[in-house]
Structure formats: structure tokens, C-alpha cells
């Protein structure tokens, strides 16, 4: 097979990470692959030894995280992910990538028009989505995308492939249940896609197969994403952790002049505590695997990396999805959640409890459960099956 992977890439590295992991597995199985992302993420693809295709992408806009009013969020989406300009340009780039690469199937992650472009070229398509995002913001964004596709004259058959032929959930039902999707949105989703399937985490092979580190040197990894929404939380976490006597590794998630300024602020917040600051790390997942605890916002990728590594997590969530992820893991006894009104002393106590890992056996047992669910293998099986069926259908039509 030839399979094109397309990822949304400018406000979260998680989508790229998942598509890169899947593409690596497909390539190992002997298939030809290419990964289409914005130029800013080019090195993440090339470093994995995968062919890269450049596509345009909209810039980060953290403001949506605080919007709970549906009308306000839909209006915001009309200027962003559902704007005619963005939808038109996305389809242009995706169709170009399809025509140049000639895939047998298209797999996309939060790139909401890639499966539409695949349909326009009569190709099977798969989308990768966290169901929790359909509580916020996709409950408001998806209807606006469909409206814009109609406005642009995209045929109804193709437009209604916005979630692909099959929607793959890179998680366990235990953590991201279909029942958590609000009824009205669930009705819309099920009316668009033929199949919704939980496949398990899309995790790098070294995280899925290697045993979690047992004896770890004390280390707190603080990584809160690269959207710019976490700077205050980053400083808050460092301030709370500086008296624990535990070395800190801080990943800023931003580069350039903004990273230089933030690094100085983080160093000042550490007040002499042992700290290693990096704008970006290609080995961030490995660092989390070696850490005795990690501080994250609660995005799916960083959460899964910690859980697969049996690393206790302290969440500082911003979005509805992150709050949902954090609450579920806290309910399972595998993490703690920092509330907006927590005092510095309270945050310090939560960090201290995570670093001490009193429930290491529970973390290891849950990591083993996650490791048994090989999302990339399940995706590979499902895409191979779809391509075989598609080829048979084409042969029958050609007769």
C-alpha cells in the first residue's frame, strides 16, 4: 500500500506524534508512506526517517480553550478552523498531496478536510480523534465545517466524509468512552461515519514494548505544551517544586526569542534549585519515562506517554478535554489535579506526593494494560482491510 498521513500541527505536537508513530509502523510492515504537516514540524517527520510533504496550517489560537458558550465558539470557528479561506486552502494542499503521492488510503489526525479530499479522489479514509474533543470544541466546530464545505460548493457526499469512512479512537474505552459524547453531537458523528473503533494508544514502540523504568533517580519533568497557554502554569509549577529538593527538567515547548524570555523567567522562579531548561526536546517522551513524576496540561499525547511509562502525573489543565482527561486519571488514582485556586503550598504537596510514588505497583499495572493495546497494529490491520476491499470494488466496477 501507499498511505498518506496528514496531521494538524501548529498548536499541538500530539497529532503529529501519533501520525508519525503510525507511519513508522506502516513503513516497517513494508508499505510506502508520507506524512503531510506544516513546515514547522518538518524535522519531526524527517528525524523519524519518513518522507515529508509540506502543507499550510493555521497558527495557534489558545483563546478557544476558555470559550464555553456554543454560539461564541461557533462564531470563533467561522473565523478559524471553519473559515472558507482555511477550508479552501486545506483542501487545495491535501488534494495536491494526494495527486503527487498517489496513496491507496488517507489517514488524518484533526485535519478535518483530509478525508473530504480523499473522498474527492475516491480513496478510503480514516480519521484519528479523541472522543473527549467532541464535548469541546468539536461539538461546535464540526457543524461549522460542514456548513463551510456546503458554502464552498463541495458535494454533500464528499462533505459528509469529514470524519472519514472510519473514525479511530487512539485510546481505551475505559479512558475515552463513546458514552461521554453528548447526545446531539453523538447523533451527528454517527450520521457521518460508518464505523467508530477504539484501537488503543498510538505510542512509540520503545514506550509500548520496553518495561517501565523501575529504580529511577529523582526527577520532575514539567512540560505544558507549545501553544503559549501554559506559561503561567509553568512558572507556577516551578515555584511550587523548587523546595522539594528534586531536580527539575523543564520543556518550554516554544522556540526563538519567546523561549529565551520564558527561560529566564523559569530560571528565576527556580530560585537556585537544580533545573535543566530546554525550548524543545526530541526525547521528551523518554525524559518522562525516566522521571519520577511529570507535570502536564493533560493533552492526550503527553498523558499517554506518562501512563505508558508508569510515571505519576500532576495535571494543570486548561481546556475541557484536558480537564476531562485529568479527572478520569485522578479517579483511577493515577494522578493529581491542580485547581486554579490551589495555593502554592497545596501545589507543592501534590507534587511531593507524586514524586514519592507510593502506588508504584498500580502505575505499573495500568501501564501494562495500556501496552497490551497496540493502536498502530490495529490501525494497520483496519487500513489494509479497507484497501483490499476498495481494490476489489474498483476491479468489479471496471469489468
Structural notes for this entry:
With 399 residues, the protein is of the alpha/beta class. The chain folds into two domains: 2-200 and 374-398, Glycogen Phosphorylase B (Rossmann fold), CATH 3.40.50; 206-371, Rossmann fold (3-Layer(aba) Sandwich), CATH 3.40.50. 48% of the residues lie in helices and 14% in strands. It has 17 helices and 13 strands. It has a seven-stranded parallel beta sheet, with helices on both faces. A six-stranded parallel beta sheet has the order 10-9-8-11-12-13, sandwiched between helices. Helix 10 packs across helix 15 (344-356). The longest helix is centred in the last third of the chain and has 24 residues, at 375-398. It starts with a strand and ends with a helix. The mean pLDDT is 93.
CA-CA gap between termini: 23 Å
Biggest sheet overview: 7 strands, parallel
SSE order: EHEHEHHEHEHHEHEHEHEHEHEHEHEHHH
How would you name the oligomeric state of the polypeptide chains in this document?
single chain
- Nearest-integer average pLDDT: 93
Helix content: 40-55%
Radius of gyration: 21 Å
Instruction: Report the uncertain regions.
Output: none
CATH topology tier name of the largest domain: Rossmann fold
**How many strands?**
13
The CATH superfamily title of the largest domain:
Glycogen Phosphorylase B
What is the overall number of helices? Answer: 17
CATH architectural type of the largest domain: 3-Layer(aba) Sandwich
Shape: globular
CATH class of the largest domain: Alpha Beta
**Strand order in space, largest sheet:** 3-2-1-4-5-6-7
Amino acid at each position: 500500500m501507499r498511505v498518506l498521513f496528514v496531521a494538524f500541527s501548529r498548536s499541538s505536537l500530539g497529532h503529529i506524534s501519533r501520525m508519525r508513530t503510525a507511519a513508522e509502523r506502516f513503513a516497517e510492515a513494508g508499505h510506502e508512506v508520507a506524512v503531510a504537516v506544516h513546515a514547522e514540524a518538518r524535522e519531526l517527520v524527517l528525524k523519524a526517517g519518513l518522507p515529508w510533504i509540506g502543507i499550510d496550517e493555521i497558527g495557534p489560537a489558545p483563546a478557544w480553550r476558555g470559550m464555553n458558550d456554543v454560539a461564541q465558539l461557533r462564531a470563533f470557528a467561522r473565523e478559524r478552523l471553519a473559515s472558507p479561506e482555511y477550508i479552501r486552502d486545506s483542501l487545495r494542499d491535501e488534494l495536491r498531496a494526494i495527486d503527487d503521492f498517489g496513496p491507496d488510503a488517507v489517514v488524518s489526525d484533526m485535519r478535518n478536510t483530509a478525508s473530504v479530499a480523499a473522498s474527492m479522489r475516491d480513496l478510503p479514509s480514516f480519521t484519528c480523534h479523541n472522543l473527549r474533543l467532541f464535548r469541546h470544541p468539536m461539538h461546535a466546530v464540526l457543524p461549522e465545517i460542514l456548513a463551510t464545505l456546503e458554502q464552498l460548493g463541495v458535494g454533500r457526499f464528499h462533505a459528509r466524509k469529514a470524519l472519514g469512512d472510519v473514525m479511530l479512537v487512539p485510546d481505551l474505552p475505559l479512558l475515552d468512552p463513546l458514552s461521554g459524547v453528548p447526545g446531539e453531537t453523538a447523533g451527528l458523528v454517527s450520521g457521518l461515519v460508518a464505523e467508530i473503533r477504539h484501537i488503543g494508544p498510538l505510542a512509540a514502540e520503545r514506550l509500548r514494548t520496553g518495561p517501565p523504568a523501575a529504580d529511577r533517580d529523582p526527577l520532575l519533568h514539567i512540560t505544558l505544551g507549545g501553544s503559549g497557554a501554559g506559561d503561567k502554569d509553568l512558572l507556577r509549577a516551578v515555584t511550587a517544586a523548587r523546595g522539594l529538593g528534586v531536580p527539575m527538567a523543564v520543556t518550554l515547548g516554544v522556540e526563538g526569542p519567546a523561549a529565551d524570555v520564558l527561560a529566564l523567567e523559569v530560571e528565576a522562579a527556580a530560585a537556585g534549585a537544580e533545573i535543566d531548561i530546554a525550548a524543545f526536546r526530541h526525547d521528551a517522551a523518554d525524559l518522562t519515562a525516566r522521571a519520577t513524576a511529570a507535570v502536564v496540561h493533560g493533552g492526550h499525547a503527553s498523558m499517554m506517554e506518562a501512563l505508558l511509562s508508569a510515571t505519576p502525573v500532576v495535571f494543570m489543565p486548561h481546556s475541557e478535554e484536558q480537564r476531562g482527561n485529568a479527572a478520569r486519571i485522578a479517579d483511577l488514582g493515577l494522578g493529581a489535579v491542580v485547581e486554579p485556586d490551589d495555593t502554592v503550598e497545596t501545589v507543592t504537596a501534590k507534587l511531593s506526593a507524586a514524586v514519592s510514588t507510593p502506588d508504584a505497583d498500580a502505575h505499573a499495572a495500568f501501564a501494562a494494560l495500556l501496552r497490551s493495546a497496540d493502536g498502530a497494529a490495529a490501525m494497520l490491520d483496519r487500513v489494509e482491510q479497507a484497501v483490499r476491499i476498495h481494490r476489489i470494488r474498483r476491479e468489479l466496477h471496471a469489468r
